[in-house]
Design goal:
The structure holds 2 protein chains of 2 kinds. By secondary structure, chain A is an alpha/beta fold. Chain A has 10 helices and 19 strands. In chain A, a hairpin with a 2-residue loop joins strand 1 and strand 2. The longest helix of chain B is centred in the middle third of the chain and has 15 residues. The chains are: A alpha/beta, B alpha/beta.
Chain lengths: 430, 250
C-alpha cells in the first residue's frame, strides 16, 4: 500500500517525466504537508467545519497513462458535451489526461492549451514563470496538492490574442482514492479568454479531491473563469484558487458548488496593479448532509482597483453553508471600490448558514460596502404563487431559482447557465 | 349549485376575530360588489377565500359549486377555479411574468401548455389591457407602480380564466384611465361561466363594472344587500347612516 510520502511524490514526478525543478518544488511542498497539522475546529477558518468523517489520509492515485477516444469518454462527460459553451477541452479521468481537443486555429496563433505535464516539456519557461505562484503551501491541503498532483491543465494566451469561445476542462473523479489536479492559466498583455473547469462524478465511496487553480493576468488581460463542481455523493472537495491581476487586468470569476458531501472553495483575487478589477460570483445549493464552505479574499494591493463579490446560496434538509469573505485594503490602496454581498435562503429549520463578511481597511479614500442576509423562504411570496395554482413545491422551486437568478443572470455562458439551472431544479425536487 | 357560497364564516388572526358570521352567495354568471368601511373585514374575507395561512377559520364553510374548499391549500383552491386579485400584489424578483404565468396555466389545466398556445392567450389579454409585451419578461411586480401591479393582476385573471374571481380593492391607487382598463378586463370575463366578487371601498369602480348585487360589510358581517342602487346610496350618504341603522336593529 502506498502512503503519502517521498517515494510516491517521486513516482508521480517520474511517471509524468517532469523536470528536476518541479520535483524539488513537490518535495518542498511535501515537507510542508508533513509539518502542517490537519485543520480542526480550533482554527478560526475551520470553526464551522466538521472533518471527522473526511477521508483525510486517503492514498493518492498515481498516473496510469490512460488515454481514450472521444467515443470512449465517460457518459458523464459525453452528456455535458452535448450542450456546452466550450470550443476546446481537456478531459481528465482519475489521474490521467485521457482526451484533448483544441481548435487548430488557436494553436496556430500561439495559444497553448494542454496538460501541465506536456507544457513542462514544450513550454518550460512559461510554466516555470507561473506554476506555484498562486497556490503552493498555503495550508495542509494546498501543500498536499502541490506535492501529489497527478494531472493539470495549462492555458497560455499570447499578448493581444482574444479568444471568444471558452475553453474547458472536464474532470471525472473515479473514487476510492484521493485525486489531486491543478489548472494554470497565464494570459499575456491584453489577451482575453474564458475558461470553465467542471468536476463530475457518480456517487462514490468517501473520496478526497484536491484542486488548485492559478491565474496570472498580465496588464490588460481579461479572463472569465468558472469552477463548477457537481460531484456525486461521497466526495470531499478542497479547492483553492488565486488570481494575480496586474495593471488593468480584469477577472470575472464564478465558483459553483452543488455536489459532493463537502466542498470548500478558497478563492482569492489579488489586485496588484492600478485599474485591475475582479468580479467574483458564487453559487451553491446544499441538500441532505452537504456542507459547503466559501472563503473569499478581495485583496486590494494597489490604488484604483475594483472588486465586486456576490455569493448566493440556498440550503435545505440538514445542509450547511459557510461564507467567510474578507475585503483587505493595503495602505496604498486609495480609490478602491470594493463590494461584497452574501445572500442565503434557508429552506428547512434544520439547515444552517454562517455568514461572516469582514473588512480590513488600510487606506482612507475608498468605497467599501458589504452585507449579508440569511432568511427563510418568504411565506407571503409563497402564498401569492400558490394562489395562482402552483403547488407549494413548485412555488418553492421557483423561489429558489429566483433567489439564485441574479448570479445566474450575470453568467453570459448560455449553456453553462442552462446546465446549472437544470441541476438546481433537480436538487430542489430531491 | 353553481355558486361561490360563504356560510356563517368566522375567522381570526393572532387571536383577534375579524369575521363574525359572514353569509354571502355569488352565483356563477353574476358580478357582485362587496363594499364597506375600512376595517370591516372585506380584505380579510378575500384572503381567507384564497386560503391565506395567516388566518384561522373558526367556524362556517366556503363552498365552491357546492363543495367545501376549507381544507384545501391555496393552490388546490386556485386549480378548482378560484382567483384572488390581490390588494397588494407581491413582488417576486427573479421570476418573470411569462414564466410564472405559463406555469400557473399549466398547473390549472393540468397539462403542458405549448409556447404557441400560451402566446395566443397572453397576446389577447395584453391587447385588451393595452399593455406592452415587454412586461412579460419583467420580474413579477418588481419595481411596478401601483397601477402596473393591478394591471398585472388582471392580466393573470384573463389568462387563467378562473370560474370565480375575488378582486380585492383592485381600484385602490388607480387613476381613471387605469381604472377603465381594469374594468375592461373584468367585463371581458363576464358571462355565464364566470362569477366575481368585487371588493371596493368606493363606488367609483362600480361605474365601470356594474354589479348585479351589492353586499355591505361592517364589523365582520354582511349588514345590507341590494341592487346597484345601494352602491350609489352609500356613495351619497357614506357608511354612517348604515352603521346607525345596524345599531338600532341590534
Amino acid at each position: 500500500m502506498q502512503v503519502l510520502d517521498k517515494t510516491q511524490v517521486e513516482a508521480i514526478s517520474r511517471a509524468l517525466k517532469e523536470p528536476g525543478w518541479v520535483l524539488e518544488k513537490r518535495l518542498k511542498a511535501l515537507e510542508a504537508f508533513a509539518r502542517l497539522p490537519y485543520p480542526s475546529k480550533k482554527d478560526e477558518n475551520w470553526r464551522y467545519t466538521d472533518l471527522s468523517e473526511a477521508p483525510l489520509e486517503q492514498e493518492v492515485e498515481t498516473p496510469k497513462g490512460l488515454s481514450l477516444s472521444r467515443d470512449e469518454l465517460p457518459e458523464l462527460v459525453k452528456r455535458r458535451l452535448e450542450k456546452t459553451d466550450v470550443s476546446g477541452f481537456l478531459v481528465f479521468v482519475g489521474p490521467d489526461l485521457v482526451y484533448a481537443e483544441v481548435p487548430e486555429e488557436l494553436s496556430a496563433k500561439g495559444l497553448v492549451f494542454t496538460s501541465l505535464a506536456e507544457a513542462l516539456k514544450t513550454h518550460p519557461g512559461k510554466v516555470e514563470a507561473t506554476l506555484f505562484r498562486g497556490v503552493y503551501v498555503e495550508d495542509k491541503f494546498a501543500a498536499e496538492n502541490s506535492a501529489f498532483f497527478t494531472h493539470g491543465a495549462f492555458l497560455y494566451v499570447p499578448a493581444g490574442l482574444e479568444v471568444e469561445k471558452p475553453l474547458g476542462v472536464f474532470k471525472v473523479l473515479e473514487g476510492g482514492k484521493a485525486s489531486a489536479g491543478r489548472s494554470l492559466i497565464f494570459l499575456e498583455d491584453n489577451a482575453k479568454a474564458a475558461y470553465i473547469e467542471e468536476y463530475l462524478s457518480l456517487d462514490l465511496p468517501p473520496t478526497l479531491h484536491l484542486s488548485a487553480t492559478e491565474m496570472v493576468l498580465r496588464p490588460g488581460a481579461k479572463l472569465r473563469h468558472a469552477h463548477v463542481q457537481t460531484f456525486g455523493e461521497g466526495v470531499w472537495h478542497f479547492h483553492r484558487q488565486r488570481a494575480l491581476l496586474e495593471r488593468d487586468a480584469a477577472l470575472n470569476d464564478l465558483v459553483v458548488n452543488l455536489g459532493g458531501r463537502y466542498a470548500r472553495s478558497e478563492v482569492a483575487s489579488e489586485l496588484l496593479g492600478p485599474g485591475a478589477e475582479s468580479e467574483m460570483l458564487g453559487l451553491y445549493f446544499g441538500h441532505g448532509l452537504q456542507h459547503f464552505d466559501h472563503y473569499t479574499l478581495q485583496h486590494h494591493v494597489e490604488h484604483h482597483t475594483r472588486s465586486d463579490l456576490l455569493y448566493k446560496g440556498a440550503v435545505k434538509d440538514e445542509a450547511r453553508a459557510v461564507f467567510s469573505g474578507l475585503i483587505k485594503l493595503e495602505r496604498g490602496a486609495q480609490k478602491t471600490d470594493a463590494y461584497q454581498a452574501n445572500r442565503n435562503l434557508i429552506l428547512s429549520p434544520t439547515a444552517r448558514v454562517d455568514s461572516i463578511p469582514q473588512l480590513e481597511i488600510g487606506a482612507n479614500n475608498v468605497r467599501c460596502t458589504h452585507g449579508s442576509t440569511t432568511a427563510p423562504v418568504d411565506e407571503v411570496q409563497l402564498f401569492y404563487l400558490q394562489s395562482r395554482g402552483l403547488p407549494r413545491s413548485l412555488a418553492q422551486e421557483l423561489l429558489v431559482k429566483a433567489h439564485l437568478a441574479d448570479v445566474l443572470n450575470r453568467i453570459p455562458l448560455k449553456a453553462l447557465r442552462a446546465h446549472l439551472e437544470a441541476v438546481i431544479e433537480e436538487k430542489v425536487r430531491i | 349549485m353553481n355558486q361561490l357560497e360563504i356560510r356563517d364564516l368566522w375567522a381570526s388572526i393572532d387571536g383577534e376575530t375579524i369575521l363574525k358570521g359572514v353569509n354571502l352567495v355569488v352565483p356563477k354568471g353574476q358580478v357582485h360588489a362587496l363594499m364597506g368601511p375600512n376595517g370591516a373585514g372585506k380584505s380579510t374575507l378575500g384572503k381567507i377565500l384564497a386560503g391565506d395561512p395567516e388566518y384561522t377559520v373558526e367556524q362556517g364553510d366556503i363552498l365552491l359549486d357546492g363543495e367545501s374548499i376549507l381544507d384545501l391549500s391555496p393552490d388546490e383552491r386556485a386549480r378548482k377555479g378560484l382567483f384572488l386579485a390581490f390588494q397588494y400584489p407581491v413582488e417576486v424578483p427573479g421570476v418573470t411574468i411569462a414564466n410564472f404565468l405559463r406555469l400557473a396555466l399549466q398547473a390549472k389545466l393540468g397539462r403542458e401548455v405549448g409556447v404557441a398556445e400560451f402566446w395566443a392567450k397572453v397576446k389577447r389579454a395584453l391587447e385588451l389591457l393595452d399593455w406592452d409585451e415587454g412586461y412579460l419578461s419583467r420580474y413579477l411586480n418588481e419595481g411596478f407602480s401601483g397601477g402596473e401591479k393591478k394591471r398585472n393582476e388582471i392580466l393573470q385573471l384573463l389568462v387563467l380564466e378562473p370560474a370565480y374571481a375575488v378582486l380585492d380593492e383592485t381600484d385602490s391607487g388607480l387613476d381613471i384611465d387605469a381604472l377603465k382598463v381594469v374594468a375592461r378586463g373584468v367585463n371581458a370575463m363576464r358571462g355565464p361561466s364566470f362569477g366575481a366578487l368585487v371588493i371596493t371601498h368606493y363606488q367609483r369602480l362600480l361605474n365601470y363594472i356594474v354589479p348585479d348585487r351589492v353586499h355591505v360589510m361592517m364589523d365582520g358581517r354582511i349588514v345590507a344587500e341590494g341592487g346597484p342602487e345601494l352602491a350609489l346610496e352609500l356613495e351619497a350618504k357614506g357608511y354612517e347612516w348604515l352603521r346607525e341603522r345596524v345599531k338600532e336593529e341590534a
